Automatic annotation (TrEMBL), chain B:
Pathway the protein contributes to: Protein modification; protein ubiquitination
Name this protein carries in UniProt: RING-type E3 ubiquitin transferase (cysteine targeting)
Reactions it catalyzes: [E2 ubiquitin-conjugating enzyme]-S-ubiquitinyl-L-cysteine + [acceptor protein]-L-cysteine = [E2 ubiquitin-conjugating enzyme]-L-cysteine + [acceptor protein]-S-ubiquitinyl-L-cysteine
Entries under SMART domains matching the protein: RING (SM00184)
Organism lineage: Eukaryota, Metazoa, Ecdysozoa, Nematoda, Chromadorea
Entry's localization field: Peroxisome membrane
Organism: Caenorhabditis elegans
Keywords: Membrane, Metal-binding, Peroxisome, Protein transport, Transferase, Transmembrane, Transmembrane helix, Transport, Ubl conjugation pathway, Zinc, Zinc-finger
PROSITE patterns: ZF_RING_2
Amino acid sequence: MSTTIRASQLASSISPKTEEKQPSVFDIIAQENLATSIRPALQHLVKYLAFFKPKTFLSVHRNFDEYYIIFDLILQNHYLRNYGASFTENFYSMKRIASGTGNPPNDGRERIMSLITLVGWPYVENKLNQLYDRLKEVYECRSWSSINGMKAKCQKMFVIIWPYIKTALKAVKSALQLAYILNRSSIHSPWLYFSGVILKHLTPEDLEAFNAVPLHLQTGYQISRGTLNEHIHLRFFNRIWRFILGLPGIVSRLFAYGLFFVQFLDYMYNTDLAKLTKTGLDGAIPSPPHKMIISESEILSLDTNKCPICLKKRVNDTALFVSGYVFCYTCINQYVNTYNKCPVTGCPANVQHLIRLFV
Amino acid sequence: MACRCLRVDQLDAHVLDSEIRSIAQDSVDDVVNQMPLWVARIFEKLRPELKVTLEAVLWTHRFSRGASPGQEQMDIAYAGYTPKLITSHFMVEVIVPYLTRRMSELSGRIDISRMYSKIEAIYELGSLLHFLYFLRSGGHSTITESIFSLRNWNNHQPTISSINYDTQNRELMWHAFRDVILLTYPFIEKARQRIVKKQKLDRKFTSSIGSSDIECVVCDKPSVIPMVGQKCGHVACYTCIATSRNMTCPLCSENAEPMEFLAKKLKNPILIE
């Protein structure tokens, strides 16, 4: 998947744009990859800040989903209103146009639907996934037989149905993507269909329109009234206002470059560079030295199928990996929960160190 | 058809075609992974058939557009690519390798498999020589193209069109990021190792630790049969330091501190009656 980014640059840099054709599937996958990079990158940044400044950023870290949806709404609304595309689509030189009219979705129903599919649905899907994981874990601890009441029945129904819904959505997306590759469909995702838009490449006229300065802010604009002093003041304020208007563009451009760097890092770590940094055990492991580990001679004199705790035949063999001895599961579980150490060697241990042996 | 196309365009078209194939295959695998286990097992058994079916679906692009998706991206196409020729090309390119491989697998006889491997190796060698000749002198880029006398032509006359600064900016940034990473990575890695080693030197085993994990200083996981330095107090797995041949502390390698089993340092436990 990471080589798709390189393929998108290969395809878009060489092919001539003599006519307005739909973007290549590589561009689309690359911009989707960039879109999925925003949220983990910001989450990692917030976690890092919360670690160093807990008083300021801990609440942001706890409610990251809500803060992120507000930020995403502002960002995508700005891009849809000014550039007619989402943030990542604009970065990869694409724009959205309404299916019926061919106009950019700056206003009206297409923009609202685009915001719902770009910002609202990922949030809802994330919440549903978290709910599914939580309910699945709850019903695995308890059994399904304790279901009573309407709410519990609804929860059980949700746990059963949600995986099928996800599979169906993924299948529809794959089918549309294949149809898009074969030029039999003008949309590559069901969310574009719901938004009522299709994707197109940016044209030079669009790029010139983005850089247009409002008429009354242009430097050479002639003022028919007022004195020279008033003229100088007006020009100064025009420059300040033009700078303020240009500031969101500058900030979003720098933000885009930062995310492109994140995408590049992801590409590097998924390819050959990661192999250089991996270290592993090499060489044969020699046999352990024959040293006396414990001084209790009665432990060593036991039969090999005896438990060192209850001194009976072992039931449900369980190894404690901090020492390697094998016990009954009930004996060692009780002992480790009580004393937090190995009964034979005394090494610190907890229930995470128990290894069930199914032989 | 304007003129014959460059070799680099043909190579790029092949790269794009293989990338599209992998994208389609990943999409199908992604859907199959979401399905129940018995469905996934059936699909795993029928993986070669699924692959051929997907290839056939992608080859329908040539019937409708006269070129493969990668060729269309590069604005090139074969001259005289008739539907009959497309069918023959598909048979030789996709069906024949599938049938020969499947028959050699299903027959179960070792000599047929060995003979098939030899034929495949000879074909690969021929393909490599043909490819080297193509890089040197041009002509057909694959053996099957030579068999069917297929040549790639540009659909339009190549021109110096308007410069796409957005794409060039992304390409320049990509290469700039790569150079920055390759330049600074050794220093970052050295600084990281120094910080990690300093942290590990401070991590010693003390008897006051009650229920916390004893982490190995080599593999950074809970210690399996922990060994502790007799003087320095660093903890490592038995298997991690056994590979160093002389059972010394990996952090205090200049002092050659000997290590012993952690169990020997602890007092005798009390058994439950």
